[in-house]
Amino acid sequence: MNAFRLHRNPLGAGLAGLSLVLATAWALVPHGNRQDAAQWLADVCSTVNRPMFSSAPAPAPAPAGSGAAARPSTSAKVISCESLPNVPGKSVTTVLVDFPPLAYSPAHRHPGSVTAIILEGTIRSQLGGAPVGTYRSGETFFEPPRTLHLFAENPDPVRPAKLVAVFVADENCGPLVLPPDAD
């Protein structure tokens, strides 16, 4: 009889393994111009004044009384970007997004399909024409290309939240976020 059991999180272990494989593969892919690749990574990974994912345009000022201006923003880290050999012209990009307590991301769009997987905490999110959804660790949500994503937030005042976003978009791996008025 074993009083101590090792509990495993198969979703977390699988995502960690997939992330490691994808990051290693990306690092081994030769780039035509290393300086261009480094600049692209610096641009994509920059999170200063950027909502949700770093390649987004700087947010417009929050409407008066919304409370969004005083809230922390999210930070994102591109884990990988790979061409899809069986889908010419498309790529898959994996991004780790951290939501500090009460973090808020304003309206935006994505150029391709996005699947978000909640790794920890709680994320509230709303797409145009849909009700607000509340997602917890182990749950997912999907965004069709160019759908208006009205907001995403961590409603918890104490605990951070984290998600992995998997984008399927054009082969050039960017930009990942578009302004809300882009069609």
Written overview of the protein:
With 183 residues, the chain is of the alpha+beta class. It has a domain at 33-58 and 70-170: Jelly Rolls (Sandwich). The protein is built from two helices and nine strands. Strands 1-2-9-4-7 form a five-stranded antiparallel beta sheet, with helices on both faces. A four-stranded antiparallel beta sheet has the order 3-8-5-6, with no helix packed on it. The longest helix is centred in the N-terminal third of the chain and has 19 residues, at 10-28.
Q: Rg to the nearest angstrom? A: 17 Å
Secondary structure class reads alpha+beta
Low-confidence stretches are 1-9, 11-66
Order of helices and strands: HHEEEEEEEEE
Mean pLDDT: 75
- The CATH architecture name of the domain at 33-58 and 70-170 reads Sandwich
What is the third-level CATH name, the topology of the domain at 33-58 and 70-170? Jelly Rolls
| Number of separate helices | 2
Looking at the structure, what is the overall shape? globular
Give the end-to-end Cα distance, rounded to a whole number of Å: 61 Å
CATH superfamily of the domain at 33-58 and 70-170: Jelly Rolls
Give the SSE layout.
Elements: H1 10-28, H2 34-45, E1 75-83, E2 90-99, E3 104-105, E4 113-120, E5 122-127, E6 133-136, E7 140-143, E8 149-153, E9 161-170
Antiparallel strand pairs: 1-2, 2-9, 3-8, 4-7, 4-9, 5-6, 5-8
